[in-house]
Amino acid sequence: MEKYSSADNWFDGQGLWSDVPREDWLKWGWQLRNRITSVEKLQEYIELTEDELEGCNYANNKLALSITPYFFNLMDREDPNCPVRKQIIPRAGEKSITPEEMLDPVGEDSSSPVKGIVHRYPDRVLFLVTDRCASYCRYCTRSRLVSNAQDYNFHPDFEAGLEYIERTPSIRDVLLSGGDPLLLTERKLDYLLGRLKAIPHVQFVRIGSRIPVFLPQRITPKLCDIFKKHGPIWMSIHVNHAKECTVELKEACTRLAYAGVPLGNQSVLLKDINDDVDAMKQLVHKLLMMRVRPYYLYQCDLITGSSHLRADVRKGIEIIRKLRGHTTGYGVPQFVIDAPGGGGKIPVNPEYVKEITDSEIILNNFQGKEYRYPLVAGKPINNQDWNQFSPDEVLV
Ligand SMILES: *Cc1c(COP(=O)(O)O)cnc(C)c1O
Ligand code: SF4
Fold first, then answer.
1. Alpha-carbon distance 137 to 293, whole Å?
2. Which of 15, 107, 260, 390 gives a 20 to 30 Å CA spacing to 345?
3. What are 270-299's pLDDT values in tens digits?
4. 374 CA to middle of ligand 1, Å?
5. Does 208 score more than 50 pLDDT?
6. Lateral strand order in the sheet of 117-121
């Protein structure tokens, strides 16, 4: 065990499934086969609240219910307010739609030149390679297509996507997402990453995945070898709360890091789950201990049926204000709003610039103290006048 793990509380163990042989538990196949995907199954393991039961009965109209045994164990079965539980067990709130909500909140479908590709920024594309995930997050921005509960029938056209990237030389960065790209078979991932690597203008590939969090067993040495072979590959994982930082996730991150995969994290700001500074500080500290650099903190997109999970934007700003300067700079993510309708990610920052005058910028530091800095360099102090005198030009 590494130095820091024992110093803190890192969950390890099989919980409700402690009678399952360790070698089965550690197999991703076992975890996937034993996912909890029905209300009946769920009720065998947990007593649902009325609110949850109503949400679970509706889930198949919106976004399927699915929880790996591994992730289920991170939930507090006694506490309906558990931050893990709220991410993964549907609630009645999913049935209500508020006026600002949309099926495709960040306008992905309208910037999609080919099925599966979203080309919004000039030099990079998002490549959606599947609609499946190991478990489903109740606030998923792609609820319209992920899990196929809404009969979207998403089937990426891999060849058309690759051809689009091949014939678009401005694309230097390809971001694989979905659904979860790490649910593709090793054979398929190996082939896809090989094809991408062969495109001269593609400088590197990124993978956005919550598999390390839902199913760390999937990060096998074989999978890591594929990443090593086709690197540079960057990865963004998706952790929202310190409770998700387990020994198994930590070990999966270690395997990825040792395969040369730099790790970032994307969190979604969620109401009464992680929208306070203490929760977020604990999370970013644990991420850094796992070699994961917090990348983005997202304001939750305006997805239909998400009002019960969307936090107040001002809380996000306040969290960043209380992190910046108060803890390791590496631990401070960029808070962003993915603009409704398709404007892309817009950074939202606490204000540190108090005023810009004709000559200076007036700043507040992390403690609120005021500092000034000149806008442009001043004129050199003129020493010329003194050069006409010799140092010994004195009368005595
Ligand atoms: C988030 C996103 C990207 C990647 O954005 P970065 O800021 O470079 O991480 C690319 N394309 C789309 C459509 C995105 O939503
Ligand atoms: S893992 Fe990502 S794509 Fe899958 S349900 Fe969660 S947020 Fe959506």
1. 22
2. 260
3. 999 999 999 999 999 999 999 999 999 999
4. 35
5. yes
6. 117-121, 124-128, 173-177, 204-208, 233-237, 263-269, 292-299, 334-339, 344-347
Q: What is the whole-number distance in angstroms between the Cα of residue 311 and the centre of ligand 2?
A: 18
- Of 337, 238, 332, 225, the closest CA to residue 277 belongs to 332
Residue 142 annotated in active site = yes
Measured from the Cα of 120, ligand 1's closest atom is: 13
The phi and psi torsions of 161 (rounded to 5 degrees) equal: -65, -45
Of 27, 77, 115, 124, the catalytic one is 124
Work out the average pLDDT over 217-226.
Answer: 98
Pull the structure tokens for residue 310: 């969307």
Query: What span, in angstroms and rounded, lies between the C-alpha atoms of 38 and 267?
Result: 27
The strand pair at 263-269 and 353-356 is best described as unpaired
pLDDT at 7 over 60: no
Token output for 28: 């991703």
Active site residue 120: yes
> For residue 201, what are its two tokens?
């203008």
- Distance of alpha carbon 158 from alpha carbon 178, whole angstroms: 13
In the chain the domains, ranked by start, together with CATH numbers, are: 3-95 (no CATH), 109-347 (3.20.20.70), 353-386 (no CATH)
